[in-house]
Amino acid sequence: DDNTVTVFDTGTLTKVKDIEVGAMPLSVAYSALSRAAYVSNGKDGSITVIDGTRLETLKTISARPGLGPLRFTLDGRFGMVVNTPDNVVHVIDPGTNEIIHSPKVLEQPYQVAFTQGFAYVRSLGSERVSIRVNSSWGSGAFKMRYEGAINSMMRRMRETKSEEMRQYYQK
User: Fold this and answer.
1) Are 95 and 78 in contact (CB under 8 A)?
2) N or C: which end of the chain has fewer CB within 10 A?
3) How remote is the C-alpha of 144 from its chain's centroid?
4) Over the stretch 5-17, which tens digit does the pLDDT of each residue have?
5) Distance of CA 5 to the CA centre of its chain
6) What is the pTM of this model?
7) CA-closest candidate to residue 123, choices 151, 155, 154, 83
8) What pLDDT score was predicted for residue 132?
9) What is residue 166's DSSP assignment?
């Protein structure tokens, strides 16, 4: 209720500092690449960027109210935060601390998960999953394509006879 996040020393389990963030902080994610923590603030639609060493706010990124879960790719290069009421995911570049893309996704996006090559966006309003190809993020090509639910997608990949697909997924 006080619009803060609390930092704890994990070695001693003691409180280190309270840091003011936006209204209704909902999710915290860390990018090892930028050495910063990112807090999605649902009520005011901001993302607070906190320096992981100094424990100070570096920047506040503006989006729209309704932000939810925030995650970073495995390498920390891109972050994604869902905006459930607007049906978009915002892609964050931790090198610039800016939103670089905001593609529309299926109704009521709620969760984001990553593999090395893909981002999966689960939506509350559909049994389908939105899939992003990670390699296109830096090029500006960022086109959304929709596939079936994860189970049916995985079944199709296993059943495919395409040598190209088998080689791709064996990497």
Assistant:
1) no
2) N
3) 15
4) 999 999 999 999 9
5) 19
6) 0.77
7) 83
8) 61
9) H
